[in-house]
Design a protein that fits this description.
Strand order of the largest sheet of chain B: 1-2
Strand content of chain A: 5-15%
Structural class of chain B: mainly alpha
Distance between the termini of chain A: 13 Å
Number of helices of chain B: 21
Shape of chain B: globular
Largest interface: A-B, 55 and 52 residues
Helix content of chain B: 55-70%
Number of helices of chain A: 3
Strand order of the largest sheet of chain A: 1-2
Shape of chain A: elongated
Number of strands of chain B: 2
Distance between the termini of chain B: 20 Å
Structural class of chain A: mainly alpha
Strand content of chain B: under 5%
Largest sheet of chain B: 2 strands, antiparallel
Radius of gyration of chain A: 21 Å
Oligomer: heterodimer
Helix content of chain A: over 70%
């Protein structure tokens, strides 16, 4: 298995493209998720008064924000799948196909 | 295997005969609903003894006192558990006849695997535990639902495809792929055992309280019976947590929870604000349930828990295994998306269930005993099922919860037993010279030992919220497994010394700080003040894990073995990116 991996893989432009796009997409979305989630967590931790502000009837600000975190988690994974399905698999097929 | 499916309902029937006897002997400690045990006979139980509920609001719905135990609920429970066992049996056979089920290709789609992952993850502990946490702490319960969910995007963005491409099927396989096998497998096995134990305790407490409530047994008997059932289930041919079984269980749980949430909302005229207002009116904590601060008193605890929940998911041994049941990286990707969607939806439901219960369960004397929730604090969702759907729904929800616990526990026990038999025994102790037969024997013994350990710990930890217990498992996974897994896949410089130092440092510090924290040191062990003042250790122990990986790697850098390990990183990296060489790796 390991002998299949040739040293010149790093020179394969498709491989470099795959590595770069997947890395960029993955880390960007990770950063967005971290900011949203820890933004919420820090507000809960250090601004509980703000989170307790009523926004609609007796509903406090914390609830819609919490729902937003849940929905953005689902939306971000969905966005990743859309982007990845169109880009990565073609590249992978080219890399693997080109080797066989 | 067939025999087992008969033994379980038979044992369930035995509970019925047991219950009046067991509670007659018991002079009823606080949490035992003894006075209602006679209701196992058709005669209606005497009304619940004087309940001094703190929440006797004028708006209390004046329902006639329903018996806490009912024949209908119990027979439905028996019927549903029996039915799920038949489905399990059918699904297991189906899996066996298609001999190379997963490798057959296309049989399991990303969508199906996504529901199966959700099924593994939506254990009864999160169903019962989160709704109970919301019931007790209002807004702060939401922190658990959100935290348990946000680990999934991280897995998706940084891990799922790469793990699938590697074609290894457990944490220890991935760790020993380029690092030295003996130290890595020893660490992975011990860490898996610790995580599995915390998780098991949560399921044991949930199942024990469920059986206690339904059958009026003393908690201690309930836990022992549940534990014995689990050991039987796993050891005698056992249920392999097949994808189909998880799909069916997840579907039933989602249907039950959806119905409960809709019925509860209908009770408030589909107005969330009416639900919040009713909750504030009856809750002894009043407006505080709508704002942060009831469960977590200081900011450091909140942040620490947030870290544990977000990064712990990626380090759970029984979850990682599921990425290798699909054909390729694309299906792995899709399965994470569907899992995230279902889990997110499910947690919104549990939140509604918990909040509705504050007024619908918290002010109905039928569901209370001496002012506390009858049957233990984790039983809120079961009572709400009765409040919105009577005995039929209570029986159905209890049965689904119980069946889910059995499935999750058997998966966990198998993961733990494999860690002992395959990693510790076959690879570390026997250095790969063990026969397969001996390995199976060791694995059986390990399952029995784990089951007995779970019984003892389940009794010790009776009073704790089960979502809190699961949170501790996540803290250990985030501190021990997650740093090693991340560094192994992303940092070329990692060597065995670093991975071992970081892994053990994260594991030991997470466990020690957990024991010294208020939840264990004060609530379980009865000391006056906690030595470690925060509820979750991850804020400190996870950085220690990463620091250890880095420091250890620097110390050993330059040695011949670490140079070899660095050179093997190239192969791991290219394979994780492309899947080259991993095509045939999925045969389980």
């Amino acid at each position: 298995m390991d002998q299949l991996v040739t040293p010149n893989m790093r020179d394969n432009p498709d491989f470099r493209e795959l590595e770069r796009t997947r890395g960029r997409l993955g880390w960007t979305l990770t950063a967005i998720m971290l900011v949203i989630y820890f933004g919420f967590i820090f507000l809960v931790a250090y601004a509980p008064g703000l989170m307790a502000t009523p926004v609609y009837g007796s509903m406090t600000l914390g609830f819609p924000l919490g729902l937003f975190v849940i929905i953005s988690a689902i939306a971000l994974t969905g966005f990743y799948v859309l982007r990845a399905n169109s880009a990565f698999d073609t590249l992978t097929a080219r890399i693997v196909g080109g080797r066989l | 295997m067939m025999r087992l499916r008969i033994i379980i309902p038979a044992l369930a029937a035995a509970f019925l005969a047991f219950s009046p006897l067991a509670s007659a002997q018991a002079p009823a400690p606080a949490a035992t609903p003894a006075p209602a045990a006679q209701a196992a006979t058709p005669a209606p139980a005497p009304p619940a003894p004087a309940v001094s509920a703190p929440a006797q609001a004028p708006a209390a719905p004046a329902k006639p006192a329903a018996p806490a135990l009912s024949v209908i609920a119990i027979s439905l429970f028996g019927g549903f558990v029996f039915l799920t066992l038949i489905i399990t049996y059918w699904a297991a056979r189906r899996t066996h006849t298609a001999s190379d089920f997963y490798a057959a290709g296309g049989a399991i789609t990303g969508f199906q695997n996504g529901i199966a992952i959700a099924g593994d993850y939506m254990s009864a502990a999160s169903f019962l535990g989160i709704s109970a946490m919301v019931y007790a702490a209002g807004f702060d319960g939401l922190l658990y639902s959100i935290g348990f969910l946000v680990g999934w995007p991280i897995i998706m963005f940084l891990m799922a495809e790469r793990l699938r491409n590697l074609g290894k099927y457990s944490f220890s396989d991935v760790a020993s792929y380029r690092l030295s096998a003996v130290p890595m497998r020893s660490f992975a096995a011990v860490s898996a055992l610790v995580v599995v134990s915390f998780y098991l305790i949560a399921q044991m407490v949930g199942a024990g309280q469920l059986i206690q409530l339904l059958f009026g047994l003393q908690y201690i008997y309930a836990v022992v019976i549940v534990g014995v059932l689990m050991i039987l289930y796993v050891t005698f041919g056992g249920m392999i947590a097949t994808t189909w079984v998880q799909i069916i269980k997840a579907g039933l749980l989602l249907i039950g929870a959806t119905y409960m949430a809709i019925a509860a909302l209908a009770h408030f005229g589909f107005s969330l604000n009416a639900m919040f207002d009713a909750a504030v009116q009856v809750s002894p904590k009043k407006l505080a349930i709508l704002s942060p601060g009831l469960q977590f008193k200081n900011p450091i605890s909140i942040i620490s828990l947030g870290i544990a929940l977000m990064f712990g998911t990626a380090g759970l041994p029984h979850i990682l295994m599921r990425f290798f049941t699909v054909r390729n990286a694309k299906e792995a990707r899709k399965s994470v998306f569907w899992a995230t969607s279902f889990i997110g939806y499910f947690y919104i439901l549990t939140f509604i269930i918990g909040f509705a219960a504050i007024s619908m369960v918290g002010q109905n004397p039928d569901y209370l005993l001496k002012g506390a929730v009858r049957g233990g604090s984790n039983m809120v969702a079961i009572h709400l099922a009765h409040a919105v759907g009577g005995d039929v729904l209570k029986g159905f929800v209890s049965a689904v919860a119980f069946a889910t616990i059995l499935a999750v526990v058997s998966g966990l026990t198998l993961a733990g037993a494999t860690a002992v038999s395959h990693d510790l025994y076959a690879n570390v102790l026997m250095r790969g010279r063990a026969t397969e037969g001996r390995e199976v024997v060791v694995s059986r013994i390990a399952s029995i030992a784990l089951g007995m350990l779970a019984i003892v710990l389940g009794i010790v930890f009776e009073k704790l919220n089960v979502a809190y217990m699961v949170g501790l498992a996540f803290a250990v996974a985030a501190s021990a497994n997650f740093p090693v897994l991340m560094m192994n896949m992303y940092w070329k410089g990692l060597n065995t010394t670093g991975a071992a130092l970081g892994g053990w440092l994260g594991l030991v510090s997470a466990v020690v700080l957990t024991i010294l924290s208020p939840g264990i040191w004060v609530k379980v062990m009865g000391h006056h003040a906690a030595i470690f003042p925060y509820d979750s250790p991850a804020l400190f122990s996870m950085p220690l894990g990463f620091l250890g990986c880095w420091l250890g790697s620097l110390l050993a850098a330059g040695s011949a073995s670490s140079r070899a390990e660095e050179s093997r990183f190239e192969a791991l990296y290219i394979r994780s990116q492309t899947g080259i060489g991993a095509e045939g790796a999925v045969t389980h």
